[in-house]
Amino acid sequence: MSGGKGAECTRRRLWRWRSNPLRRREDVVEAWIVLVMLVVAVLGGALVGTVVTRAVDQDLAQQRADRHPVQAVLLTDTPSSTPGGSVRPTAKVRWTAPDGTVQTGRAPVDEGLRAGTTITVWQDDRGVLVPSPPDPVEARVEAVLLGCGATLVFVALVYAVTSLARRRLDRRRYDRWAAEWALIGPLLDRRTS
After folding, report:
1. What is the pLDDT confidence band of residue 193, given thresholds at 50, 70 and 90?
2. Are residues 128 and 141 in the same domain?
3. Residue 75 is part of which domain span?
4. Which of 88, 116, 132 is the last residue of a domain?
5. pLDDT tens digit string along 42-64?
């Protein structure tokens, strides 16, 4: 026995490509659509994922380069606990900007600190307080996750477009079958009665 179950499965999948008296033009078009969809989904998905991953990775690296830690003095006490506990409290702080001017503003701080405590805050090159940049590991994980998400969205769009095209082909097949049945059905009814 040559071929076996795998060869039979392959033959069934590729029936649209073989010469077959029941094969219609829509069947061949559908086979090409599915083949193109697979190629576009694999190659395009890989390209989109790579581009997004690199772009996010570069953006986060730029954030790490542009943001600098600076020592600040806490001007107000912070509560010992916050409602909900998931959001860090903000407090008024004073720090020195890169141009040497003394600045004040609000920054997220740990709970339970007293006024006068020295803390580390992050500023950009203009001296504006900004959130701390992600460390390289966090940045890489975020970039990869966003790249994977972009790949999934791209593949879903390709699949949706392919499904719409196949649905139109199915509609055409059903219409042609209905037209053919309208021609042949009465002939068969006369023979059976």
Report:
1. low
2. no
3. 68-132
4. 132
5. 999 999 999 999 999 999 999 99
